[in-house]
Amino acid sequence: MYFLGIGIVLLLLKYLEIGPVATFSWWLVLSPFALAVAWWTYADASGYTKRKAVEKENAKKQARIDKQRENLGMAATKKRR
């Protein structure tokens, strides 16, 4: 996502000819988009994207369970020593 944001900023700066970016070659300006595609390809192929989605779902599920337990008065308490 960072590559995409950087690419959009560089593209706007190049198109509007603002600052030193106006002198950059188009290959340099468009390279963050290629890096974004490469990252998304790697993330999907390695399972990183799916793993993060599952972790997020599990966190939401655990939060719902904890909230229900708290509402029922069954909140986990610390064990006494």
In short:
The chain has about 80 residues and is mostly helical. The chain has helices at about 1-15, 25-45, 50-70.
- Low-pLDDT parts are none
Content-based structural category: mainly alpha
Tally of alpha and pi helices:
3
- Percent of residues in β-strands: under 5%
Mean of all residue-level pLDDT scores: 90
The number of distinct structural domains comes to 1
Walkthrough of the structure:
The chain is mainly alpha-helical. It has one domain (2-71). The protein is built from 3 helices and no strands. The chain has helices at 2-15, 26-46, 48-71. Helix 1 packs antiparallel against helix 2 (26-46).
Set out the fold topology.
Blueprint (H helix, E strand, L loop, with lengths): L1 H14 L10 H21 L1 H24 L10
Helix pairs in contact: 1-2
From the structure above, extract its key features.
elongated, 0% strand, 3 helices, 81 residues, mainly alpha
